[in-house]
């Protein structure tokens, strides 16, 4: 019988700021898919978007506050320690060098990110290093042709594959997302309205103390 590997999941993002949409998604994936660890991975200098107006340190501090009383989710700061654009493939290579191949690593993302995957740095190597867990919304559309459709055809797998193989599968998981975005939170603050109840109270206190998002950030 095939043995079961230790399973580590990563949930990467800009987290500018972290909100309940991110936190619920990470916690649900960990619990439903039974990962041994779920690590939230703030990016330093996001590769495919404008540099955030709020420092990496402040985005990290807000994430640390959000996770302070949560034993199920961990903060992984490795991308903040690397200079230059943050590429996921570099992070996964670093993790593999540390952990070897007796561990299953899953990188979690939304379907939107999967559709943009062919633009990621050295994207063909991602599945040699990790599985992808792709969260879709009810009524989602998987592409029928193109590079992503071919990728799905070759790599689509089940939960059991993630538990016995180190990398190389794509698991599609349907999940309802909370309708919250960091962009929405920033624009509420900028227009003088409150984002209370969309993110943890301690994160809101941090934003207010440091006067974040009042101008274009
Ligand atoms: N409401 C949500 N529920 C679950 N996952 C989310 C939600 N919003 C974003 N995500 C996912 O969280 C990860 C990190 O996203 P990111 O930090 O860009 O947050 P965001 O709220 O989408 O930010 P922005 O509005 O600035 O684009 C991505 O994989 C994204 O798909
Ligand atoms: O490696 C890349 O080229 C790459 C391109 C776009 C996004 N990513 C990663 O995808 C995750 C979500 O990104 P974002 O921009 O939606 O917050 C985050 O961990 C990013 O580092 C990675």
From TrEMBL:
Summary of the function given for this chain in its UniProt record: Catalyzes the reversible adenylation of nicotinate mononucleotide (NaMN) to nicotinic acid adenine dinucleotide (NaAD).
Protein name, entry field: Probable nicotinate-nucleotide adenylyltransferase
Catalyzed chemical reaction(s): nicotinate beta-D-ribonucleotide + ATP + H(+) = deamido-NAD(+) + diphosphate
Location of the Cytidyltransferase-like domain: 10-186
GO terms assigned for molecular function: nicotinate-nucleotide adenylyltransferase activity
Family note: Belongs to the NadD family.
HAMAP family, alphabetized: NaMN_adenylyltr
Pathway(s) per entry: Cofactor biosynthesis; NAD(+) biosynthesis; deamido-NAD(+) from nicotinate D-ribonucleotide: step 1/1
Pfam families associated with the record: CTP_transf_like (PF01467)
Alphabetized UniProt keyword annotations: ATP-binding, NAD, Nucleotide-binding, Nucleotidyltransferase, Pyridine nucleotide biosynthesis, Transferase
Protein species of origin: Microbulbifer bruguierae
Gene from which the chain derives: nadD
Record-listed E.C. numbers: 2.7.7.18
First-level EC class: transferase
């Amino acid at each position: 019988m095939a043995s079961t590997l230790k399973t580590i999941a990563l949930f990467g993002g800009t987290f500018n700021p972290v909100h309940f949409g991110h936190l619920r998604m990470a916690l649900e994936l960990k619990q439903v898919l039974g990962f041994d660890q779920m690590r939230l991975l703030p990016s330093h200098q996001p590769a495919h978007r404008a540099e955030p107006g709020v420092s990496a340190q402040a985005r990290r501090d807000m994430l640390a506050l959000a996770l302070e009383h949560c034993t199920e989710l961990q903060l992984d700061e490795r991308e903040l320690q690397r200079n230059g654009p943050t590429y996921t493939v570099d992070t996964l290579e670093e993790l593999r060098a540390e952990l070897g191949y007796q561990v299953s690593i899953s990188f979690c993302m939304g379907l939107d990110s999967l559709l943009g995957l062919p633009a990621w740095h050295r994207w063909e190597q991602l599945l040699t290093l990790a599985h992808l867990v792709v969260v879709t919304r009810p009524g989602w559309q998987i592409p029928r042709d193109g590079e992503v459709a071919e990728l799905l055809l070759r790599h689509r797998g089940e939960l059991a594959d993630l538990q016995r193989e180190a990398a190389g599968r794509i698991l599609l998981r349907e999940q309802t997302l909370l309708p919250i975005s960091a962009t929405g939170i920033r624009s509420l603050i900028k227009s003088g309205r409150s984002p209370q109840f969309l993110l943890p109270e301690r994160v809101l206190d941090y934003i207010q103390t440091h006067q974040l998002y009042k101008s274009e950030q």
